[in-house]
C-alpha cells in the first residue's frame, strides 16, 4: 500500500490517503525525486536549451491542521505516477493587489494565491557536463507579499547565460509564516524560515537528479529575502546547505527586520481575538467548532490548553477571513522572530555578539543607490510628497516627462519631520528620548560632508535609505569579514544604473530591487519594452546632420538602446554564474579586506571601473547614535547629550560621487 496525492504540478493539490496495489510506470524522461517522479519541458533559445520544472512540491501542503505549524517533509513516495510540471508554483497567501500602475504590479502576484504553496520552480541549462552549480533565489517583499513565480523572477534566461541551475524557492508569508503563540505551544514562530530551510534540504537531497552539485549552491536574496539569506547564517540546521550567498539591500540585523517574541505573540493574539478565537472572544459557533475538532482528534476538551484551542479555531477560519484582518490595520507586523526554539534555537542577538555564525560562506553584499525613494510618497503624503499613479501612467503612455505633481516637493521643516517620525515611530523610544534622537539625526545630516549640500527631498531619501538599509548592511558586511578573519571571499557593490523601463518618477531611480531586472534577463526576455532613448542614443541622434527618414532614426535609437541593455544584462548574469562556480564574480571586483574596504560601482558606464567605500562617516555616526539611545532606553537615563564623532572615525570619510579611486578600461568582466 502507498500514499499519494491526487495532484499535479499543473493542477490543485488535495492531500488524500488512498490505498493502491498498483504502480504506474513513470513517463519517458521523468526523473525521481523525493515525492515521486516529475517531468519537465524544454525551452529553446538561439544559444541553447533549458529544461523547466515548475511547481515542484518540497513539503506537504501547509493548510488545514498543518496551518501555522512547521513544514512537514514529503514522503519518499508522496504521489503515484508522474507529475508533469508545467504550471508555475502557487504564490503563498497574501492580500491580492491589482493596481492600475505597473510599478506596483511588477512585484505582486496577480493570480494563483493559495495555501498549498510550498513549491519550487527550477530551470536547468541543457549541457553535457554534470555537477552544475545552483543558485537558489528567495523572493521578498517585507514578508507580506511576493512570489517565486513573478515574471520578474523567471530564471530561464539566467540559467542559460550563467550556466547555473536556477531555483526559485517559496515560503509562507505574514501571519501564515510568522505567527507565534508561545514556546510551549504548537505555534513556535518562524515557520516561513523553516519553509525555506526545508526547501534547501530538498534541493541538497535532490539536485544531483538535475545534474547539479550539492556542494556548489548559492542562495540569493534582495531586500526582505536578503534578510532571509543572512538569517540562515545564524541557524545551525542551515549549515552545509549552501556555500555561497548574495545579499542585496538587507540583513537580518537591520533595525526593522525582526520582531521580539512579545511583539509576535501580541500581533498573533490580536488577530485571533478579532476573529473570535481567544478564550474571552469565542462565540458559541467557535466553541462548537473547537469541540467537534477535539472529538474528531480523540482529545478531551478539559485537558487541552487554551493556546491549542486558539490554534484550532484559527485553523478553521477561511484564508479570506484571516487575510482581511492581517493586511488592513497595520503594515509590517509579522516578521522573523529574533529568539526562538526552532530556527535560531536561541537569541539571534546573542549569536551575533558571540559571532556564532556560519563562517564557511563566500558572500557578495550589495545595495542600490536610492533604496527607499518609492516609499516616500506613501509615508509622507501629509508633507506634499504625493504620488498619482494614474497621472504617472498617462505621462508614460504619452511619452512625456514626469508630472510636476509627482516631484515630491519637501522643505527643511519636512526633513525634520521625517527625523521625528523615525525617532517616534520606528525607534519607539519613550517621549523623553525621542527628542534627543531626533536632534542627533538632524545634526548628522546637516553637518556631514555630502548630505548638508543636498536638497530636502534628497536629504530625506538619504536618511531613509541609510537608516533602513545602507548603514546596517555595511555594518553587517564588515562584521562578517571580521567574524571569518578574512578567510572567505567577501565582496561589496553599489548599483547605480537607471532602468530604462522603470515606470516610477525618474527622481526615485535607481531604486530598491531594480538590479534584478538585468540579472533575470528582462531585456532579453522582453525586448519589446526597451524602446526609450538612452543618453548615448540621444547624442548619436543629435550628431546626425541630415536624415532622410525619421522612422529610420527612431529604429536605430531603439536598436542601440536594446543592444546596450542586453549587453548589460549578459554581463550581470555572467557575474552571478562566475560567483556561484568560483566565489569570484569578475576580474575587476576587489575582495573586501583590511586594505580594500571598498565596493564596486555598477552603473551604465561600461568603459571604466569605479569603487566606493561602503561604510561612510554618516553611517558610523548614525549607528553610534542608534546604539547610544538604545542603551539609554534600557537604562532609562534619558536626557539628550551632544553627539560628537570620535577621532578614530576619521577613517570613514564620505566619498563624493564624482571621485573615483580607480578607473580601468575593460571589455569582458
TrEMBL record:
Chain coiled-coil ranges: none
Gene Ontology molecular-function annotations: acetylcholinesterase activity
GO cellular component: extracellular space; plasma membrane
Biological-process GO terms, alphabetical: acetylcholine catabolic process; choline metabolic process
Listed InterPro entries: AB_hydrolase_fold (IPR029058), AChE-related_enzymes (IPR050654), CarbesteraseB (IPR002018), Cholinesterase (IPR000997)
Location of the Carboxylesterase type B domain: 31-536
Protein name: Acetylcholinesterase
Biological classification of the source: Eukaryota, Metazoa, Ecdysozoa, Nematoda, Chromadorea
